[in-house]
Specification:
The complex is a heterodimer of chains A (246) and B (374). Chain A contains 10 helices and 10 strands. By secondary structure, chain A is α/β, with parallel strands linked by helices. Chain A has a 6-stranded mixed beta sheet, sandwiched between helices. In chain A, a hairpin with a 2-residue loop joins strand 9 and strand 10. Chain A is globular and about 55 Å long. Chain B has 374 residues and is mainly α. Chain B contains 15 helices and 2 strands. Chain B has a two-stranded antiparallel ribbon. In chain B, helix 8 packs antiparallel against helix 11 and helix 12 packs parallel to helix 15. Classes of the chains: A alpha/beta (246), B mainly alpha (374). At the A-B interface, helix 2, helix 3 and helix 4 of A face helix 9, helix 10 and helix 11 of B.
Chain lengths: 246, 374
Amino acid sequence: MNERFILKVEDLTVSFDGFKAVDHLSFYVEPNECRVIIGPNGAGKTTVLDLICGRTKATEGSVVFKNKELLSMREDQIVHAGVGRKFQTPSVYEDLTVFENLELSYPKGHGVFGALAFKRDEKVRARIKDIAETIFLADQLDEKAAFLSHGQKQWLEIGMLLIQDPQLLMLDEPVAGMSVAERKKTAELLNRIIQDRSVIVIEHDMGFVADIATRVTVLHQGKTLSEGTMERVQNDPKVVEVYLGH
Amino acid sequence: MQSSAFMSRKEIIGFAILAALIFLVLPAVLDNFRLNLFGKYLTYAFVAVGLALCWGAGGILSLGQGVFFGLGGYCMAMFLKLEASTPENTAIQSTPGIPDFMDWNQLTELPWWWEPFYSLPLALLAVVAVPVMFAFVIGVAMFTRRVGGVYFAIITQAFAAIMTILIIGQQGYTGGVNGITDLRTLMGWDIRTDEAKTILYFVNGALLFAVLLIAQYVRKSKLGRLLIAMRDQEDRVRFSGYNVANFKIFIFCLGAAFAGIGGAMFTLQVGFMSPTLVGIVPSIEMVIFCAVGGRLSILGAVYGALLVNWAKTSLSESFPELWLLGLGGLFIAVVMFFPNGLAGVWSEKIEPRLLALFSKKKPDTSAPDGAPAE
């Protein structure tokens, strides 16, 4: 096996009633790489993340993460293998406090009886406090998530992923809908948390992409249009035509 | 920091008020007949508490809880019926020693699956185990296929209908539409006397509190918070590494176990079990008890069961044909105006005012006993 890549996506295809949203797509992610996926609307960006994390079942192809085939695994097994996924719209538990939101993502007591017996010990508290500071929510721990601003909810969801400590983190438009100030803070946060793990990000904000990307994959109609460093992709005439041009 | 204690001070007071109501106030003010009636109402509270967990916390609406109530009740009734059907008692039958309805249906020997119900420990085990196994099968079939929401509700309702039809159709084995009647003694102890009924009322109350404490533990555990999380953002829970189906199956089975215990206590206190307690209408009524009491509150569920049933008895004595309409109207009114039921009215409207009142001046009258039911 080639250990150079942590994630190998090969020939990945999904078709919805004959429409191929992702069409024989292949790409490879190295350890500690930050891969950004860009592309016009409907290019299949979110679908690719859905396929990797098991939310959508692939029609054919393979997704190998650390020598494990993900396509035959259940969503929760994929999470335990070390893949974390953030959704495009902030998905937090609004009726629970920030503390409880983070606690539910703490990687312990994930079985039925484990959850019944789960104890909130010092280690758990310390870790949650730690994460809360990272995501700028240390003062909101006892607040219900419903009362957070849009940006804070995005941070909370990022925190819920961080507490799982995934080796592959997938973020779907993490700065969408944020104010300029929040955006800046988020970029700083992401730059910090992508250091010791592999990350796949979907993003439209080109300034932000240039800031974080190791490599960029441009998707168009479910296929790779171009791939490489930001500079190379930006100067690719095909990319300019279908995406960056307008 | 959010407290993870088993009960907050407010909850301890709530439990204490309910305990006082069930163990002191009701026995003191009601005659034997009415007390037995309230004992019957409280058996429905078992179901309502289970629904508060399943539906209120977990968002799983089951319209088939009557099935589990009935299964628990039938398991108990089968034991009592066998005890009542001694060869001496049934000497005039063509086959003495089997339950009377079997004899009327030309059965000449006891079906094999009735045999275990000669044993009280096995029967008591079955009261919980049979509903749980049934719920487990339904839960695995539905939740691993991600059937949820209104589809799940409809399927459970269909189960309630199927169960009724099955029981009525298999008259020789189940007693048919009349159910299992003429139950007399439990290990030689006559359950039809006033004294026995009073004792059973207290046993019922104690069991209800055991169930309430289990429910409280589950609600306060991480599993309780997971249920709320699943209700609001199922996908997020799944992608936080939980097998959502397992948690749904667990809570559905727990609700079924509660309902089964309630059913068994119904049989003991009322003296019979029949398909009219299994079908669609009683199953929906049970959901209404829970909704009226406040589906987020396990104590509210108990008050809901008591209040709606008390209203049902009082109203249907005077206006029998209007009751179902009234019940429907009540359900719509609660859902539209008080989505959190009585418990919601209490915690949003009454409690803040009481607190304001008490903080201004010293309390001069006694505590508002049973106030949540008002």
